Amino acid sequence: MSSTTNYDMKNYNKILNQYLQNKDKLFLANQLIFLLDFSTPDNLLHSKIILENKLIRDIYSEGEEVDACDLRIIFFSFLKNKKQNELIKQLSLKKYQLIPHILTDIDDTLFPNPINIKYINFSGKDTSWLKNKPYPGIKSFYKCFYNNISFNPAKYSTILTATPEFLKKRRFDDKNINEILGKNFGFLSGKESKIQALWDSILGTYKGYGILSPEPNSLAKTKFTKFKQYKILFPEYKLIFIGDNGQGDLIAGFKMIKYDPNCLVFIHNLYVNNEYIFDKKKINSYKQKRLYFFDNYLSLSSLFLKFKLITKRDFNIIKKSFISDINKVGNWLNYKLYSQYIVKKTKKYCHKSSKQITYNKRTQIHKY
Length: 368
Description:
disordered N terminus; 368 residues; alpha/beta
């Protein structure tokens, strides 16, 4: 294998073309074994990143949706337990230096996606921001986070979602996700089959969570399982999970911090029916080391600053972007939530001939 900065794409393309011809997933598994045997830690990490992010997209682009797979699927679906255990030992021995890496949910975490139909609760709930619009400051948040990672191939995030495996292809081309995370991101889906996903919805409906609403404990169990598998594949990552308190993320988050002593969990406190789901008293009752709640991406940035995941300069950049995004949306704003960030404009002078208006601007900035 070549160096990390000059990954041998000819070798990768050869592997891809051979797989597209024979659809032999065991062949891909053997390529992973080869990488472990002959790669240096940094080269191995880069190779794993490409198998996580690029492989499945290239298979999709060839129209081979059924046979699409990535690093996790190769490792846990097509290697026998004995070989898995051998490779797990090698992965831990060849791990690169510890690198922060974000695992993020989608709906109500990257952007609100509330379904406003009574008794139905299979998507998002949050009404604090415009539906299907990236949360204010989030694009700058990710950009600043990546700027603090020294290993260039690791400047990406991985989605950890309840979206079932058979629906994940459409998420790769989601405009909002690509705007926020870029086109280079990993994807850990929910249930593996349509039957499993349907059973989750039936169980959730039966237990009173809403029509077609997945059962939260089952969703949490699936996310935690995928989290553990991801940690095995990437022992060099300090995992940071960002989710919300709508559908099982909090339950999964508690399991994550108990399982992984280096993990951090941040839970978005959703705003539903003109109030936050958790008040301060409730949040304090959930208080745990390495598990935190946030209202928006400015407050999340203050937590990242606390853990030295971003710099003070980054925080100021995110704050500026956060305020700018709020003021772009015009009169929609929920005044109760955003009044302290609104730029007040006072008419000062109007030149009749040019019809230009000059404003004095005063920005009120909430302090964290």
